[in-house]
Amino acid sequence: MSLTGRPLVVVANRLPVSRNGDAWRPSAGGLVTALRPVVQQVDGHWVGWDGGLSEVPTRVEGFEADMHPIAMTDAEVDDHYYGFSNRTLWPLFHDLLAEPVYDRQWWRTYEKINLRFADAAADLDLDDPVFWLHDYHLLVAAAMLRDRLPDATIGLFLHIPFPPPELLSRLPWIDQLLDGMLGADAIGFHTEWYRENFVRSVQRTRRDVTVSGDLIHLPDGRSVHTAAHPISIDVSEFSRLATADDTRRELAELRQQFDGRKVVLGVDRLDYTKGIRHRLQAIEQLLVDRPDLQDQFAFVQIAVPSRDDVQEYRDLREQVEYMVGHINGRFTDPGQDVPIHYLYRGVPKTRLAAYYRLADVMAVTPLKDGMNLVAKEFVTVQHAARDEEGQEAGVLLLSEFTGAALEFVDDAIMCNPFDVQSLAARMAQSLTFDAEDRRNRITSMAEDVADKDVFKWVEEELATITSDPRAVRVS
Ligand code: GDG
User: Fold this and answer.
1) Which of 76, 83, 188, 334 is most buried when burial is the number of CB atoms within 10 A of its CB?
2) Half-sphere exposure of 178 (CA within 13 A, CB side)
3) pLDDT reported for residue 1
């Protein structure tokens, strides 16, 4: 089934393809995986920044949508992407974990680039398309598209938290931002809390709207549907990966490397929202509180390089690397392995799955995170590997400030990552659960994820955007 013949136009900051040498292929991100089966069934289009690469082909094997690249100059990327998106909106939407910068030039470029995306989408000149806009880089494009095509069907999904009005009102352009978003017919958020924050912000700034249930009624007669649709993962892909031959081989190597030691694992983009510094402080506290653990335990942190053109991210890397050196220097005796293994890089997916299988404790402890897919991947891989020899279930240690917390509150070990002492205590506690308890918890969480996988998310989003409960069925 397929949007009853209507074209689907995804509008996102990046195109879903990347170049390796001369070969183009689909990128590895979650959104790309989620939409691959859908664009195969419909007349699919994708409008996105070309990443500075010229000559993007219209079609790339393995992703059945037409590519519509948007070019930006280096100065525009600095202002739109590194500036307004990542130094204004990102910290403002993540509870001010860094100080947002309010720069008029950045805002003007943000509007200009949003208009460029909206114009490119409108210029496609398709017959009754469904537009699906994504994320904080393009929050005002919906209204611009609506100006061009008043009757268009437009959806918007925000992948990061939406802040409470008390914080959002610091933004000098709050009115334009909310009006921009209200150009959509439907706006999706990961959680009910973010949805409510949005509705409360609109009610505060716009006296001329009324709200009934999840609808916002505008004076021009349009209504905007708001919805909480938690994103998820491709469960069958991660289940397959869990027991793939390469994963097994990698796991055997890792088990040898960490023989006899409990492993706590962190997997994150190197971002100040992910709580890596607090996690390291908790590890240090744990080693102070429990000297017996010193040679019994390893903490592995995979830190994927991210936004290293932004000063806050360079500072974060320095601080994290200083802390790793400090803790390893303090707690390694001669002849002993270091307690912290720090990898500043991404690893291939089979290696990632092997680490998920290896972990006794998966530490997902962001200070704020829209959803967090790592938590969902971990429980899925652990569950899929449950019948393999030597595979005992691990424990998910989960921050209460993630979107995932709402789904896993009963079975994860919940923590407040700001409270380093209690985080250390939770880590120690996580190492003590008996095997059956761990297995039951992982099973329960993995079943929840399997019930609501990423394809369900696509179906729910497109059903809401099109007001058609059977808009697409992804098999
Ligand atoms: C944003 C929001 C929201 C990580 N390390 C490696 C690797 N990864 C992959 C994971 C996972 C993805 O990156 C990270 O996704 P998250 O959801 O955890 O975090 P963000 O990047 O911040 O994503 C977030 C998400 O959007 C979706 O809406 O959940 O809240 O911030 O899929 O597997 N992949 C590989 N090697 C690595 O070393 N191959």
Assistant:
1) 188
2) 26
3) 40
At 402-412, the pLDDT tens digits run 999 999 999 99
Q: Which residues of the chain have pLDDT under 50?
A: 1
Catalytic residue list: 159, 369
Mutate to test the pocket of ligand 1, among 231, 373, 449, 453 (most ligand atoms within 8 A of CB): 373
User: What pLDDT shows up at residue 423?
Assistant: 98
Task: Please write the tens of the pLDDT for every residue from 25-72.
Answer: 998 777 888 888 888 888 999 999 998 887 899 999 989 999 999 999
Enumerate residues lining ligand 1, CB below 6 A: 28, 30, 159-160, 231, 267, 269, 302, 304, 346-347, 349, 352, 369-374, 377
Q: What is the pLDDT of residue 475?
A: 64
Which atom of ligand 1 is nearest the CA belonging to 28?
39
- Whose alpha carbon is nearest atom 10 of ligand 1? 374
Short-list 230, 168, 161, 157, CA closest to 202? 168
CB-based contacts of 79, cutoff 8 Å, min separation 6: 103, 105, 106, 108, 109, 110
Please, are residues 161 and 370 in contact by the beta-carbon 8 Å criterion?
Answer: yes
Adjacent-strand bridge partners of 60: 63
Number of neighbours of residue 268 by Cβ within 10 angstroms: 22
Q: Give the pLDDT confidence of 443-467 residue by residue, as tens digits.
A: 999 999 999 999 999 999 999 999 9
Q: At what angle do helices 276-289 and 311-331 cross, to 10 degrees?
A: 10
Q: How far is the CA of 372 from the centre of ligand 1 (A)?
A: 7
> For position 205, what pLDDT does the model report?
96
The best mutation among 374, 457, 461 to test binding of ligand 1, ranked by most ligand atoms within 8 Å of the C-beta, falls on 374
